[in-house]
Design goal:
Layout: H1 2-26, H2 52-65, E1 66-68, E2 75-77, H3 80-83, H4 89-98, H5 103-115, H6 122-141, H7 145-167
Antiparallel strand pairs: 1-2
Helix pairs in contact: 5-7, 6-7
């Protein structure tokens, strides 16, 4: 009787663990990417990088000055020539509709990234780097010392997640 009870409890625990693991792997890091309301199918789960040229363009845009306004959903690119490129439309969608904007959302993302065991997808990696850019901008805009520390901690956590992903085998 005792061994039957132990086996039953063990099987229930294993069943619970398998369900928890399955749900964990289905968790989406950026759920708003699946709810973009722009109307075009290509922008469902939008991503900027589709080729090496796109990756180089994203690097150039970030390096030249990419500003994401916290209150308004506005993306500004410092270089007017780069800003006029049609190929930056997905970047606009990602920055305005997908990236987390509040400190609590970014901290929640940091926690999810910390729990994430697999490599980040190309889209999630890109969004995490863009979230780092936004977080760095918010640090410079914060005037209160405590708020500034919280934003800096979030930036550090995002950096650690990127570093962990780059070092993963």
């Amino acid at each position: 009787m005792e061994t039957t009870l132990v086996l039953l409890i063990l099987s229930l625990v294993l069943y619970h663990l398998s369900i928890s693991a399955a749900l964990h792997w289905r968790r989406v890091l950026y759920p708003s990417a699946l709810r973009v309301k722009r109307g075009t199918p290509e922008l469902l789960n939008p991503s900027v990088q589709r080729s090496v040229e796109d990756a180089n363009l994203l690097y150039e845009v970030v390096w030249s000055g990419l500003y994401v306004e916290p209150e308004k959903s506005v993306l500004r690119v410092a270089d007017e020539e780069l800003a006029s490129l049609r190929s930056l439309q997905p970047l606009e969608v990602v920055c305005e509709d997908v990236l987390p904007r509040t400190l609590s959302d970014i901290r929640r993302l940091c926690h999810q990234l910390e729990q994430h065991r697999a490599r980040l997808s190309k889209e999630d990696f890109e969004r995490t780097v863009l979230t780092m850019v936004y977080t760095a901008q918010r640090i410079t805009q914060s005037t209160e010392g405590h708020q500034r520390e919280l934003w800096a901690d979030a930036l550090l956590q995002l950096y650690k997640s990127i570093k962990k992903d780059l070092g993963a085998e």
